[in-house]
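Sample A.
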Amino acid sequence: MSQTTLLYIEDLTVDFDGFKAIDKLSLYVDYGELRFLIGPNGAGKTTLLDVICGKIKPESGRVIFRENIDILRKKEHELVLLGIGRKFQTPSVFTELSVFDNMDISLRRKKNVWTTIFSKVDKKEKEKIMNILHFCGLEKKRDLKAAFLSHGEKQLLEIAMILIQEPELILLDEPVAGLTKEERFQMGQLLKNILDTRSCSILIVEHDMNFVRQFAKRITVMHEGKILCEGNIDRVQNDEKVREVYLGRSEG
């Protein structure tokens, strides 16, 4: 295993009642990398994220994080503590709480239950929260209930809630779904800024090919639970199998 590899996946298989959602897949993500996962619906992309974050267990294979952490032996909450943050397609924020309180709750997820329930945010924690909100462009929304945020702002808040936990690997499932053109660009710039200023890698499942073309440096194309092609956007777009299987289809 290379010392530059943050996430190491080898011969991974996930079987749902005889259907191989992932079929002997191997994938390697380096430190500081922004990797896009694309492919038609049913290709196994979201299932792969589910395995990495501990939501489901595979039939076989290896998934190693940070050189020596066996993900398959860990529970979901343990992987959060170890530095894996997951954002689902639909924002999962606490809509009746303020933006600041959402951040406070996320910050305390790395602490024990009693600390989460009874402790109050101190000056250092408040400063940390405000720095992340500023980084994500949400500092002016700190006192607003999350219910009143736009869809795009909720997406940004959820990413901010992940960042406050200082992850080493961020998993994003269609982060620009439902966003305007301006919001998509803002999201792309945020992801670039995260990589430029923080020690982490980002693995993204995405269907919006315009967004992929604009921001991707390395792309993994999945089909029927396997990797069809890997490389930069030019290599992927010019690959004959990819054109047949994916790019010629509807992007929805």
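Sample B.
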Amino acid sequence: MDSLDKKSAFVFTAPLNEKQLAGKRILITGGASGIGAGCARLFAAHGSHVIIADLNEELGRALVAELGGSGGSVNFIRVDVSSFESQKTMFAAALDLLPGREIDVLIPCAVVGSGFWDYTPLHPDALRTNSALEPTTKTFQVGLVGTYYSALICAKYCMGLHVPSSQKESLPYDKSIILVGSLASYGPLPGSPEYTSVKWGVRGLFRSLRVEMLQTGVRVNMLAPTFIETPLTAAQLPMLKKAGVPFAKVEDVAGVVGRLVVGRGVNGRALAIMAEQVIDLGDDHEGKNAGNILQAMIESGLLKAPLSFNIPKPHL
């Protein structure tokens, strides 16, 4: 537990100052529900200019109506994040709606569940018939490819980085990309190799961009929440609660996101968001790529989510 008690240089649960978020220009994909909607509510309440981008137009417009009248502005744009063309169109429309035609913060939350892997073996003759069904790649296209598209388009075209650094007095580090990983980015979620692969991919993107983007003044951090009560986890909720798995709240995640936005000295951190606790995973060389903290979490019993950290051996 000692390594869990190490104090971070930045307090991710410190009170938020409304003035620090007022006027921030925020774009959230998957913003109509779940974590994305929670973030939209937080930023709208603090006077930010929020773009909610989502495939679900009904939910998105309902959220805009709910959040109307905030000190900033809230708009909805329909997007299919798995399509590069759709994302290009969405980002161009977003710039037209935002003051100064720039984005300060990108939060790519869009994801779809994968269900559980069916390991049932079948006769090889099924390969010659219609009974061998092609698996869907939608989880990959939305959660990983879509996240990559969002980060690429936003950083390349939408954050004002085309202005030569010589024209700037200094890098203010007020732009940021907050990627949404998971504790499944560190240990496989049993029965869900698609979702696990997507979240490991997001972690790989995070570890690369946190180095590459800082030289342009853009900070990159990653959320690694435990199970959150969202539409994505609704089907598993009763089973997991019965097993004693603690759930964090959407509001917990949104609060951390807000603090990452204002924490201009914070870059390259992966944060585990647990029930009533936020832990810097130490996903770097010093922390043995999060190994030290994860081991402490397992030994302390803090990590109760059904993740597989042990590799089984064949019984010969």
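B remarks: The domain at 19-114+136-162+171-282 is CATH 3.40.50.720 (Rossmann fold). The longest helix spans residues 138-158.
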